[in-house]
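Dear colleagues,

As part of the handover before I leave the project, I'm documenting each prediction I ran so the next person doesn't have to rerun anything. This entry is a single chain, and its sequence is reproduced below.
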Amino acid sequence: MARVSSLRPMVLDGLPQEALAATLSARGGRDIARQLAHVHEVRAAFLRKTDIPEGITHFAKGESPSKAALRRALEQSADAVERLIRRAWADGGRVGGFKRGIVVLLGYLIAHESHHRGSILLTAKQTGHPLSEDLRWGIWGWDKI
């Protein structure tokens, strides 16, 4: 089985540093960096319900981390989620703190991260930082995974 952690945060890598400050919100909503930090924080919040989260980075509310800090945090939380999946799978899908188990938790994380990916792509495009065709459409190339 391929390691989840070997997958780089490709959307983050496809954006220039200045794009991380982009936002479409006129009311102080999250910029791209804060959306990515939020994705990491949601992973970390679920992981805190288990015994996996040792050493998980925390971003303060409203913090717009650098690209390097986001990369480290996203890779860190991806590694921790991978450990959780492997352990839960070996335990029949059970995860302490989640009465419906790993499948429901993963469904939530996929839906949440998909929502933010779409928002990030739209923000990047409309603020002059569109991602490459490969990054925009690459998630649909299931035969290439």
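The radius of gyration is 16 Å. The helical segments are 10-13, 32-47, 67-90, 101-126, 133-137.

All the best with the project,
I.
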